């Protein structure tokens, strides 16, 4: 192998004119370019939706604040939630899967490159359609504007009678279109993993990242149809006078909730399992040990996938289900805690006895471990129906899911960016700026979301545009809002780092972290065909075998 | 010009008013917890473990009017006990697992002498995997059993004799409260008797909605239950101490979701009888108020509001028969004072933008007459 030579040569300079490069982006079917396009798109949406969250926090800084009027506030939290789930979370996952899966399984591209491009453009157009509502719902000219029904858009608030204009229609269509993109991308990942693994890579030798995104893709295929179906039914209600969710005509509001959460709960696992996937790659490398309990990790992932389709109604403990239904969903919900716990314990087992180095990817992983532990435990509290009757729809829930999605998912996305950026660009990100990013964001995260637990316990409902003084919420909201400044500073460090290192970062070489999976065996950035000769593997850590011929993994597996 | 002045005055009044509210006994925002018990300990722990150590020291925040850990009602107490168990188990897990994580990260950090040496490569252990699978399963079983019991205790309760039956109908953005057995209709403030030893007087609520989904949440009395159109839900409360308990709509219901406040006034049994008797009185027809009455009945106010025994029989807005017996206007937006009432009737949109009551464009003279009449509806 000629890895050494490749490692020392600088990445090729891009010399094509801008128009030609843009033209290339529009036409490309290369999984690496599409993967990066997904990620950059998602990061842009992340900044937009992040600024919305910042505005929300500023409005709630003090009681009876009048920074934004109620209608604008309601649009802000609706667009913040919708954007973060569908146009930040989903494209980030799709981007990581697209970029990494072929490299990790030793393939030259995805199984269906053109379907891959189709998926990206559907996602982008879906997002543009959603944001077009600001101009056309009727926005500039009339009373309406962006959607204001909340990201889970409960019926019958979305019906013609209560949501006039077309803002809800833009919400439906934008998500329908991007849902097609997500399904296409998931299908592609499954087929790629099943059919295109390199020689010697049996299922039980796949990197855990690949295992986990395989399960996630299966879950996307199961979760998207209920949402799309419900949205089509809602469109029929709104345009053709059907009565699925029209309670004035005998329709059912609870039906929408069942459909939505049948999508929505698998969806939150769809977002968090890729975070697990990244952690399962990064923690071993920076602990210098293989993942502890690989088969248990695979089994736990499959169990989470399986159980996740049977827990949806724990979002609905307050809609008045029977005691029997409530009990069933308590049991199934708490059961998810078992495989999730197994994962945390296995990461702990990986750290134990290792040599932990605190590079930027690893510090974000360690933050993730603590935060996800807390998020899981507040999830157990919310899973106990009686406790949930108090906590649901309060700020405690807001704190809980931001712990999973920011403290868990976003932290791991940052870890993944620091870890794989050298592979994608050939340049290292600045470690200093990375650590600044980590500490600022960590402080901001905890200042913002820790006090929200208490506000919820003190009875503060979510989605209120303001509140009166005198109920003990003031101080927690103020701390929470101040934390937002730190988060903005932290993310600014990342943006500067990403842009500056593109030209000025240290040359990475093919394997800067002394890692073990196949993507580190090719040059950084990888050539269009990924591998000069397709690799052949004999264990889960092919590069370990290569670096330690005296003590290879395949002797033990 | 004049208009601007008044509106600014109004806002400052409203702010001051709210500050005053906390201290004024005539408008108690909350029932102050006198005995904290385990709840206050838990809350204090939570607050101390949070980032707000300095602020907790000032003490006042620990006991708020809507703290779920300071319950004053049977179902809220059952929930609180279950919650305490779950919270304790979760805290214990956090200490053990978090402690192990912190220890491992500190103990196994990379040191200079590790240069070029890899640690022993450990792939896993079936015994350990089994242990950390079985222990969580046992914990899950414990929590599930305890929780199931609480679910059936709360949801399976049957109304004893002496139960007060109430129907609550959610509207964008106010609460209609009906006592079918007593023939009383009111809004936004639910009056109930307290349970005393040997004399159970729980209140069972039928929950309905006239438009979109809402949720009834008075944290110190019970968990929340949604009010969903075209569906009948049920919940119950059983306050054990007289006082005013505040709450909110807890399901996003559109523009003014934030301003859909709720209060439950729990009376000693005799006081409750007095309240019932007062509410059953027909409105007084005072000849001195004829002018205001005529002004009211000549506007379209009567298309939306009911005043019993008159031809005002609209069903869309709150019943006004005993308007002045209520503590707030606009579902808790402002205290129900003569000034606020006048400001509200003049332009509800100024106080609660988007409220479904329009500005009736009354002249100042009409406004005075209408407000005088409304103020007589005790």
Outline of the structure:
The complex is a heterodimer of chains A (557) and B (378). Chain A is an all-alpha fold and 557 residues long. Chain A contains 16 helices and no strands.
Could you please describe the fold and organization of this structure?
The complex is a heterodimer of chains A (557) and B (378). With 557 residues, chain A is mostly helical. Chain A has one domain: Cytochrome c oxidase-like, subunit I domain (Cytochrome C Oxidase, Chain A, Up-down Bundle). Chain A has 16 helices and no strands. Chain A has helices at 3-8, 18-27, 31-59, 70-104, 113-136, 167-195, 208-240, 253-287, 294-308, 323-351, 360-383, 385-391, 395-425, 431-457, 474-504, 542-547. In chain A, helix 9 runs antiparallel to helix 10 (323-351), helix 13 packs antiparallel against helix 14 and helix 14 packs antiparallel against helix 15 (474-504). The longest helix of chain A is centred in the N-terminal third of the chain and has 35 residues, at 70-104. Chain B has a domain at 287-375: Immunoglobulin-like (Sandwich), CATH 2.60.40. Chain B contains ten helices and twelve strands. In chain B, the strands form three sheets. A five-stranded mixed sheet of chain B has the order 3-2-1-5-8. Chain B has a five-stranded mixed sheet with strand order 4-10-9-6-7. In chain B, strand 2 and strand 3 (184-187) form a beta hairpin. In chain B, helix 7 crosses helix 10. Chain B is elongated, with a radius of gyration of 27 Å. In chain B, 43% of the residues are buried. At the A-B interface, helix 4, helix 8, helix 9, helix 10 and helix 11 of A face helix 1, helix 2, helix 4, helix 5 and strand 9 of B.
Main CATH class of one domain in chain B? Mainly Beta
* CATH superfamily caption of one domain in chain B: Cupredoxins -  blue copper proteins
Estimate the helix proportion of chain A, in percent: 55-70%
The whole-number mean of residue pLDDT values of chain B reads: 85
